[in-house]
Amino acid sequence: MFKKYFTKALLYNVLIALAIIMVLLFIVQRGLNSYTRHGESITVPDLRGMSFAQVKTILGGKNLEWQIMDSVYDMKKPPFSIVDQTPKANSKVKEGRTIYLTLNAINAPTTEVPDLVGRSSLKYAKMQLESYGLKVGEPVYKPDPHLNAVIGMQINGRDVARKTKVPKGTTVVLILGDGLGSSRISVPYLIGMRYEDAEFKLKGYSLNIGSVVVKDGVNDTASAIIYKQVPEYGQGKSIRMGEPIDLFLARELPEGIIADPSLYDKVDTIATQ
Question: Which of 89, 185, 211, 217 would bridge with 246, disulfide CB 3.0–4.6 Å?
């Protein structure tokens, strides 16, 4: 009798305990679903181009958090506007998610103007300036024997000193050599000359060395002998000052080529306009 009564009481208590546990689990599950919005998500808006004030209002209305991750400078975009965001626009996220923002800075970062004077052509100088985040203005030509060589740089009409720091986006005007306008000079005779002697002579004539082709067996370019040149020497042939002459070098003059040293100094200016 006692045994039977104890069994029923125990079973009754176990059933009550199970019922309470199930109710608690149901309440907890409903609470979690409500808290996490189970099965629901928020579409991240496209914030690029918006002002920071607009973004705070929009994200606040969607129960999303925000944090400034980085800043860049783009002179084409308004200060404090959104340049980029993570997660990207149209991503699906849960409520409370943080959106990381990249802002457009109000002031441009500074950069050093590269030293290009006396060592650069127009094409190379433009590439270098743009790689530093600088703009290239309309070039100004001035008398100089070297055509399109950079002989100076200016910002706002003033010469640029070495290692000058300026805001990115600043316009730099290149001062270029004009090759002395239309001045031409008779093509000098270089056959039989050593390379280092020809190099010195060409500088004196305001001419440049173009391509240098070296034959096998030449160990010392400076003392190598010129056996061919382009353009060739000839009566009435001329070249514009600042233009190059291609040189072909060998250890000695090849068979069949005879140098005429009497022609080395026969160089005349042909015309100047």
Answer: 211
Q: How many CA atoms lie within 13 A of 47 on its CB side?
A: 32
Q: What is the pLDDT of residues 76-115, one digit of tens each?
A: 888 889 999 999 999 999 989 999 999 998 887 889 999 8
d(CA 163, CA 168): 14
**Residue 145 and residue 177: Cα distance in Å, rounded?**
7
In angstroms, rounded to a whole number, what is the distance separating the alpha carbons of residues 125 and 202?
A: 24
The topology (CATH level 3) of 184-271 is Trypsin Inhibitor V; Chain A (3.30.10)
The whole-model pTM stands at 0.41
Residue 109, both tokens: 């970062």
- Going from N- to C-terminal start, the domains of the chain cover 1-33, 42-104, 110-177, 184-271
Q: How is 9-64 classified by DSSP, letter by letter?
A: HHHHHHHHHHHHHHHHHHHHHHHHHHHHTTT--EEPP--TT-BHHHHHHHHHHTT-
Q: What is the DSSP letter of 260?
A: -
